[in-house]
Specification:
The protein is built from twelve helices and twelve strands. It has 362 residues and is an alpha/beta fold. The two termini are 19 Å apart. It binds nicotinamide-adenine-dinucleotide. Nicotinamide-adenine-dinucleotide binds next to helix 4.
């Protein structure tokens, strides 16, 4: 089988880590037909956007994208490429694994978390009211009439919107992921003790969905307690399902538990399409220097293989990267004890080392 994949190298250091990742994916023996689409700051002059329509059209056709980071141009009026992709393709879940590997400098061992963040609503739905506008006045009047609360007019407002369909699909995704990947437990995270109606609804849907998956343990945690638990004993948690805002915060917290950006993969997934990419940005100051760590994008490539059902190849890539990290020899500056370590290797040498390890594992 040959997989059609839209490959978006991005800009900054994106093309270098994309090339390294492409080589590693091809070294598994799986065949890909890469539909290469350009996005990034160099597109602005021709298309007026960092993300030309042909990128989205290609992902609609192939259903799967592998994406390098894209620089957001400075100045007003530029929509973030990630927001545009998420909205156009209805990528409703942001999946972020956080796994510790021996050899990564971190305060923790045995972290193996999967964060499933709802990607489309909550306080991030963009329903906001500006201070001093007629719309804001109307909202304040409405609130006074309906709830009796007289709020200060010297204020702005963002609406927290939680729906049953969006909550249900992210929770089902979390349980399906747990089942497909032999994980033991899903924890729903909320603040239903205070936001009894919005977060309470998310919790209620979580409890209903959990009944559909009797083979997977289910529990819930209040978000503040969850933060403390993750810092104290992250090894007790497995798959987490969260509304948008808590998911955003806890996914960065979890990346911090395992040693940072250079190894943190991610994916945005919808019913029809999925886009896999590292969590980090384009690190433009290192562009063209063969310097930055390609492992986060390689791990994202492994996530993509899992999504395609190529679980054995995904396991092999992860094992090969883990072995390179554990040895500590062929790693970039960010994984060395000091960033100016002269023995640090470059992006393409990391790819060479991972490919050599993959061949040994075959
Ligand atoms: P960044 O993640 O690009 O870089 C911050 C710092 O982290 C870098 O200077 C570097 O020291 C380190 N770093 C990042 N990736 C690394 C890697 N693979 N290996 C080693 N070190 C690494 O964050 P930023 O500087 O805030 O953003 C740069 C640009 O990227 C901005 O325009 C931002 O909007 C964009 N961005 C894009 C995405 C995306 O496309 N998904 C995500 C985040 C940021």
């Amino acid at each position: 089988m040959v997989y059609d994949i839209t490959l978006i190298p991005g800009d900054g250091t994106g093309p270098e880590i994309t090339e390294a990742t492409k080589r590693v994916l091809e070294a598994t023996g799986i065949e890909f037909h890469w539909h290469i689409r350009q996005a990034g700051v160099s597109m602005v002059e021709k298309y007026g956007t960092v993300l030309p329509d042909n990128v989205i059209e290609s992902i609609r056709e192939t259903h799967v994208g592998l994406k390098g980071p894209i620089t957001t141009p400075v100045g007003k009026g530029f929509r973030s490429a990630n927001v545009a992709l998420r909205k156009s393709l209805d990528l409703y879940v942001n999946l972020r694994p956080a796994k510790s590997y021996p050899g990564l400098r971190s305060r923790y061992e045995h972290v193996d978390l999967i964060i499933c963040r709802e990607n489309t609503e909550d306080l991030y739905a963009g329903i906001e009211f500006q201070r001093g506008t007629p719309e804001m006045e109307e909202m304040l009047d409405f609130i006074r009439r309906v709830t009796g609360q007289k709020l200060s007019h010297d204020a702005a407002m963002s609406i927290k919107y939680i729906s049953v369909p969006a909550s249900r699909r992210v929770l089902r995704f979390a349980f399906e992921y747990a089942r497909a990947n032999k994980r033991r437990k899903v924890t729903a995270v909320h603040k239903a003790n205070i936001m009894r109606l919005s977060d309470g609804l998310f919790l209620q849907v979580a409890q209903e969905v959990a009944k559909e998956y009797p083979d997977i343990q289910f529990e819930d945690r209040v978000v503040d307690n969850m933060c403390m638990q993750l810092v104290q004993k992250p090894e007790q948690y497995d798959v987490l399902a969260l509304p948008n805002l808590y998911g955003d915060i806890l996914s960065d917290l979890s990346a911090g538990l395992i040693g940072g950006l250079g190894v943190a993969p991610g994916a945005n997934i919808g019913e029809k399409c999925a886009v896999f990419e590292p969590v980090h940005g384009s690190a433009p100051k290192y562009a063209g220097q063969n310097k930055v760590n390609p492992m986060a994008m390689m791990f994202s490539g492994a996530l993509m293989l899992r999504h395609l059902g190529e679980r054995a190849a995904a396991d092999r890539i992860e094992a090969a990267i883990a072995s390179v990290i554990a040895e500590g020899k062929y790693v970039t500056y960010d994984l060395k004890p000091r960033p100016d370590d002269p023995t640090a290797v470059g992006t393409s040498q990391v790819a060479d080392a991972v490919i050599a390890r993959l061949r040994e594992l075959s």
